[in-house]
Design brief:
Helices cover 30% and strands 25% of the residues. It has 12 helices and 26 strands. 43% of the residues are buried. Bound molecules: flavin-adenine dinucleotide and nicotinamide-adenine-dinucleotide (NAD). Flavin-adenine dinucleotide binds next to helix 1, strand 3, helix 2, helix 3 and strand 5.
Length: 468
């Protein structure tokens, strides 16, 4: 914190941002770049859920799990691609978590550096509002009062806790799962959504016996089953037990008690129970109720500029609604900083990409259900040279492009396959720029790359497929 600002005991910046996650820190960097006197408050390390206990640590773990799994296969009798490991690999999981923590630390320090460069004053402590424009922050040096012109709320979200399965002991949330120092021998995951599937698969690759309990009748219910079938097949091939349409009743001793879709009561032995049944906006404990904000269900209500019902109070990221994704939060943060600086901006993306880092990965951008008025082209990775050369052509993956039948305008692109998360940018750019199937078909894609499958899906929709 810059002590000069606190000389009269009250800080009066132009912009006060609560929350140093991707929404808050991006808003702060942009506000600082635009010359606004900006204070950013966070009670934790900089980076928020995304960087400290979400996107980044989970992807680091997924990376190590993939490597380990390949090595275990190479150590098997048949080896892998002619590679034979003389002995099975050994895993020092505490060291894995140490490496993951190093990645997190490096990025969190990077955020600090960027904020310094943008001349943002960072205050470390928990913020509480007594009214919409008065904020008190408990720091180690005492309470600081801040009366800003503008407030940007970016307090993020928290894991949902099931009342009959409270966190504690062997019942853990994603935060604790990313801090374990041993791979649980028997892991039961409750909730087969984003986190449950990403972390569940990672732990299965690391050697855990995985059981998944999901209330709905399919995994990853937010995607259509055509997209999730390859993931489901991977689970089946790897001995993961799935209880779909099942209800959790509670935990007793070592067992998680569930009732299956057929009404059968089962006691599932578990060393850890990872509960991933969704996240809720963080609206409690910081004076949200004192700010006269309108609510939209559990979320803070905002308009298409992220303005709340209270003048000059803005809200962004997980706090304001679905999708609860880091790139949505940061896009909103950048926009609000620019609006405060006088720019004319609205949050009106043509599409927000969703990526699930399962095995195989799933990407979905824009429209995902085609009707009569649409034309669809689907191309399998089985016919893509790059996929086959990376041994990822036979897991049922494909790219699917959906366009308006009359205009050819691309409305949605989905893909499932190994490594395809990196195609999310191309898919989103095509939709955001209003490309048609002819535009997509006219783009020369480098060979051999997975992107050629996207190209072919457009050709297929146009009835001109070359490689199937
Ligand atoms: P957050 O990142 O939650 O940050 C909020 C910040 O506010 C926190 O740092 C908190 O300490 C601070 N704060 C809150 N209240 C106060 C207060 N009163 N005073 C001071 N500070 C306060 N999204 C993706 O797009 N891709 C992924 O791959 C992905 N993976 C994920 C994996 C996991 C395991 C989890 C849990 C989430 C994942 N997400 C992913 C979601 C992503 O992390 C969130 O969408 C994103 O972090 C939301 O950003 P935010 O800025 O709104 O809030
Ligand atoms: P989620 O909404 O993705 O999935 C929750 C799952 O739990 C659903 O399938 C739901 O049917 C199931 N469920 C709910 N109550 C249940 C119960 N009582 N018993 C059994 N199953 C139950 O939630 P999540 O996995 O906790 O993730 C939270 C959010 O974090 C996501 O919505 C997403 O926004 C974000 N996230 C994104 C990524 C990514 O972008 N790759 C990764 C992780 C998390």
């Amino acid at each position: 914190m810059n002590p000069m600002l606190a000389a009269n005991g009250v800080l009066t910046p132009e912009v006060l941002i609560i929350g140093g996650g991707p929404g808050g820190y991006v808003a702060a960097i942009r506000a600082g770049q635009l010359g606004l006197d900006t204070v950013l408050v966070d009670g934790d390390r900089l980076g928020g859920t995304c960087l400290i206990r979400g996107c980044i640590p989970s992807k680091a773990l997924i990376h190590v799990a993939g490597l380990y799994d390949e090595m275990v296969k190479a150590a098997g009798e048949k080896g892998r691609y002619g590679i034979h490991l003389g002995a099975a690999p050994s895993l020092d999981f505490a060291a894995t978590i140490g490496w993951k923590n190093g990645v997190v630390e490096r990025l969190s320090n990077g955020v600090s550096g960027l904020l310094r460069k943008a001349r943002v004053n960072v205050v470390s402590g928990w913020a509480k509002f007594s009214d919409a424009k008065t904020c008190h922050v408990e720091t180690v040096e005492g309470v600081i009062t801040i009366r800003p012109e503008h407030v940007i709320l970016a307090t993020g979200s928290r894991p949902v806790e099931l009342p009959f399965l409270p966190f504690g002991g062997k019942v853990i949330s994603s935060t604790q799962a990313l801090e374990l120092t041993e791979v649980p021998k028997r892991l039961v995951v409750v909730g087969a959504g984003y986190i449950g599937m990403e972390l569940g698969i990672a732990f299965a690759k690391l050697g855990a016996e995985l059981v998944i309990v999901e209330a709905q009748d399919r995994i990853l219910p937010l995607y259509d089953t055509t997209l999730t079938n390859p993931v489901r097949k991977w689970l089946e091939r790897h001995g993961v037990v799935l209880h779909l349409g099942s209800k959790v009743n509670g935990i007793s001793g070592d067992n998680l008690n569930i009732e299956t879709a057929l009404g059968e009561r089962l006691a599932l032995p578990a060393d850890k129970v990872l509960v991933t049944v969704g996240r809720k906006p963080h609206t409690e404990g910081w004076g949200c109720e004192a700010m006269a904000l309108a609510m939209d269900g559990r979320f803070v209500k905002v308009d298409d500029r992220c303005a709340t019902a209270t003048t000059n109070v803005w809200a962004i990221g997980d706090l304001v609604g679905e999708p609860m994704l880091a790139h949505k939060a940061s896009a909103q943060g950048e926009m609000v900083a620019e609006i405060i600086a006088g720019h004319k901006r609205r949050f009106d993306p043509a599409a927000i990409p969703a990526v699930c880092f399962t095995e195989p990965e799933i990407v979905s951008v824009g429209l995902d259900v085609a009707g009569e008025q649409h034309v669809t082209g689907q191309f399998p990775f089985q016919a893509n040279g790059r996929a086959l050369s990376m041994d990822s052509g036979d897991d049922g993956g494909f790219v699917r492009t959906i366009a308006d039948r009359q205009s050819g305008r691309i409305l949605g692109i989905q893909a499932v396959g190994k490594h395809i998360s990196e195609l999310a940018g191309e898919f989103t750019a095509l939709i955001e720029m209003g490309a048609t199937l002819d535009d997509m078909a006219g783009v020369i894609h480098a060979h051999p790359t997975l992107g050629e499958a996207a190209h072919e899906s457009a050709l297929k929709a146009l009835g001109r497929a070359l490689h199937i």
